[in-house]
Amino acid sequence: MIRTGTLDIELIRARRRAADFAALAKPRVVLMVLVTALVGFYLGSRGTPDYVALVQTLVGVGLAAAGSLALNQFLEREVDSRMERTRLRPLPDGRLEPTEALWFGTVMTVAGLLFLAIAVNALSSLLAAIVVSSYLFVYTPLKRRSAICTVVGSIPGALPPVIGWAAARAELGLEAGVLFAILFLWQLPHTLAIGTLYRDDYARAGIRVLPVIDPDGRSTGRQIVSNCLALLVVGLLPTLIGLAGAVYFLGAFALGVGLLGCGFALAISRSIADARRLLFASLVYLPMLLALMAFDKVPF
């Protein structure tokens, strides 16, 4: 009985540690990255997609994304300990040691980049390396220095569909640039809505996102509206360049108008309720836009 009880305790501990390592990888964020990479691969494929190459791309991108997210938590463990929304993460809560997170993140990231280079192509691996390096060594330290961090952080966040496109074609082009622009512009109202919701938390941790250094919210509102407006226009480009059809165009216009309306509401009221509404709208906008683009893809 004692031996069985000890085994059960060890099993519970092993499961908890596995859950903590999984939390380092931020599965929901990785899932979003994989969805955008998948759509980029599908849109970039000529004829029927190569499903083996698609799976290999998703494996490599998933490993690199999970590893870089874990390394981000390693670098920001002290900052996370000051924020209510992050203080119970495995590192600030002491459930994992920093060295464990460092090794876990490093192995996952390197494995993902090498896998892309060997199993897919060099261009996709290079783009993934740019994501990792800019996310960890430019965006992460910049968060405590300047509000420009939101713009800089949107660059690595916009590259996963470009990686998918490069994996399918081994080259880039105008279409990949449009995909990048859509993801780049989408992230700005999305992250500014989050910054508005958690302004006090970010301020406590010394993170200088725009809502923290803009207490009355006027500049934040202008940025949100201008980027939503730009996204409305750029979101129509896939049809205009021959990547998607008329169904996508109408859907993208409707989604863009809806997001812009939520942006205007927050800019006027500067309320938490409207910030939450904009965040929800942004989370609806992106998957629906990508689904429409994939559904109404123009064959080539």
Low-pLDDT runs: none
Kindly state the number of beta strands. 0
Described by strand count, sense and barrel closure, the largest sheet is: none
Q: Strand share of the residues?
A: under 5%
Instruction: Note the overall shape.
Output: globular
**CATH classification, class level of the largest domain:** Mainly Alpha
CATH superfamily of the largest domain: UbiA prenyltransferase
SS-derived structural category: mainly alpha
- Average of per-residue pLDDT values: 93
Domain unit count: 2
Describe the fold and architecture:
The structure is a single chain. The chain is mainly alpha-helical. The chain folds into 2 domains: 13-171, Orthogonal Bundle (Tetracycline Repressor, domain 2); 173-300, Four Helix Bundle (Hemerythrin (Met), subunit A) (Up-down Bundle), CATH 1.20.120. It has helices spanning 2-24, 27-44, 51-75, 77-80, 98-120, 122-142, 149-158, 160-169, 174-197, 199-205, 210-213, 218-234, 237-240, 246-269, 272-295. Helix 9 packs antiparallel against helix 15 (272-295). It starts with a helix and ends in a 5-residue tail after the last helix.
